[in-house]
RNA sequence: GGGCCAGUAGCUCAGUUGGUUAGAGCAGGGGACUCAUAAUCCCUUUGUCGCGGGUUCGAGUCCUGCCUGGCCUACCA
């Protein structure tokens, strides 16, 4: 087989957040593919990095009162720790905030300039004066110019679906400072993508670079179809600069302007390769300017646009190789629902690892991942039963039911007759390999499990546990176990891209490390067999529950913190009060009616001798109705200022004897207490004695 | 609003260029075994293939309308 030279990337994790199980769909998918290629003997390298630039990082650093570089260094360490936990084996992990990347961005930029693709335009954008920054759409909220629904985001209305620019919003507010932004005009640099239309048309629509539905999507949505009646659609100019302040790289020939994060992020793929090349004494051009080297990107469907139009355009203009293939996957849903941070279903990688085995998730994802863009559902019931039934029950069971019988004698010296099982399975290897190659891991897993379903009956029929009882059948017993362990090993080789840990343990068990796909083609004979140790634990429901609960608790805490700190709507109302005092259980109208609330006028108010918190109020319900009430509002109100005003009181509250006298009711107020007490008052016109309904 | 994709047994999915009575795993039911992590093995129930039209000798597979769901809709990371 010819050795292929393959460079692989996954989308760059953004340095503003923890890795969760949704991200891991892609990272595990990529890792499996890379491990598969390496197992096949290809020269395959996984180049990866953190994506570090943009407004979000800048804002976060500001909020936390530290530098962007601190924020991204911390994220980088956390990300890499999580990836190791999930056995994701990249060859280099860089950062888009690196010298290599800055230099490469400059070179690519120069090429694009030289190709005459750059033009300047003035852009009106909202500017937050207090924060001193231009506002991206998602940092603006206001009233929809179409339907006048308040509280809408900067780019479209969730109610009427209108799209608009933030500058069109009525009464816009910055979500960063809660202040009203002003419109400022600034010079932006654009890439005229339309000049590359013909090239992109060709590249996307031919040559199998994209999944068919993706090619189709691009044609329908952006490129148009030159053969149709409407003809080709022009591609819009791509705004690739941001005025200062912006966390990123300043554009050398346009001081005060920075490259938009989506310009420098994909160049990070090249920069990471460059770092690796320097460490390993290789040439970057061998990978990125070489027709022989393949380049494969794995991404989620949300960033299709960037990777299938901008990125090939940039590469083309800068004279780099184009992607061989962009592999696009769908999103993760949890128990059939969209992942939600608020509901705690965006399980963090680190939370998962505290409770569950990474191999289980790797297998589960593999068993569900196809070559299409379908969403993948993480259903915990299925997860548990699939991993337990397939891996523990069927695959690992082969070893655990046979290894101990040959612990002392090892594998037979010649491979015994197994009725053709091994050869059959060796043959199936090609189909399994093709499935891996095409990213149809679900198919590969199905084929592998079919083999396991044939191996277990073999053991069943051979009855090694009965052979063991008869010493004269020792050879037969060894042969049966040799077959069982070889069939097991063959399965593990096929599974090793998905389950590297199992492969390693199998290598130890049979004293022959698993290093190559071709090992599946010939049986292993004559080696010692080590003492069998559990290779994989069953998933316990309680561990899944524990993870879910921990994640829920994390989510609640995060939401609380967010609501407490950030202005959540245009009035800047915090969510904290609802958190401090959550809603009580639902009540009926009958329950409510039991409480007789009345408008009352404060006719007298005075300090109480010796009381630290109380004021003594005399309330009038009109006519002769007077009530004496002791209220804990001394810290918040001066008695003389209360006299004359109207309040709301609970008029049928059972009188209560207090230290300083009888209290015949309660005045209504909000707030946590102390100085923060806010009495309720009716609007003007209310009359003392009126009931509140 | 516009677009892309999908809709097959309770669940997760296979169904090659349209071709015989639509399949697998899991779950459910029955039995066997006891080497194995209550693991394994054998047998077994279940479907108006989203709905309605159309093309065809023949459609889950092609065309069309509708319904439902997911996603995208460019200065959003």
Furnish the topology, listing elements before pairings.
Layout: E1 5-10, H1 21-39, E2 43-50, H2 55-64, H3 68-85, E3 92-95, H4 99-114, E4 118-128, E5 133-134, E6 140-143, E7 152-153, E8 170-174, E9 182-191, H5 197-205, H6 212-223, E10 224-225, E11 231-232, E12 238-239, E13 241-243, E14 257-259, H7 261-280, H8 284-288, E15 293-300, H9 304-318, E16 325-329, E17 332-334, E18 337-338, H10 349-355, H11 358-368, E19 376-378, H12 380-400, H13 421-437, H14 441-462, H15 464-467, H16 474-495, H17 500-509, H18 541-565, H19 576-580, H20 589-594, E20 597-607, E21 615-620, E22 626-631, H21 639-642, E23 646-650, E24 656-658, E25 661-663, E26 666-667, E27 669-673, E28 676-679, E29 691-692
Parallel strand pairs: 1-2, 1-15, 2-3, 15-16, 17-19
Antiparallel strand pairs: 4-5, 4-9, 6-7, 6-8, 9-12, 10-11, 13-14, 17-18, 20-21, 20-23, 20-29, 21-22, 23-26, 24-25, 27-28
The structure holds one RNA strand of 77 nucleotides.
Provide structural commentary:
The chain has 21 helices and 29 strands. The chain has about 700 residues and is of the alpha+beta class. Among the domains are: about 125-185, Methionyl-trna Synthetase, domain 2, CATH 2.170.220.10; about 355-520, Isoleucyl-tRNA Synthetase, Domain 1 (Orthogonal Bundle), CATH 1.10.730; about 590-680, Nucleic acid-binding proteins (OB fold (Dihydrolipoamide Acetyltransferase, E2P), Beta Barrel). Helix 12 (about 380-400) packs across helix 14 (about 440-460) and helix 13 runs parallel beside helix 16. It is flat. The model has no long low-confidence stretch (mean pLDDT about 85). It binds one RNA strand of 77 nucleotides through helix 6, strand 12, helix 7, helix 9 and helix 12.
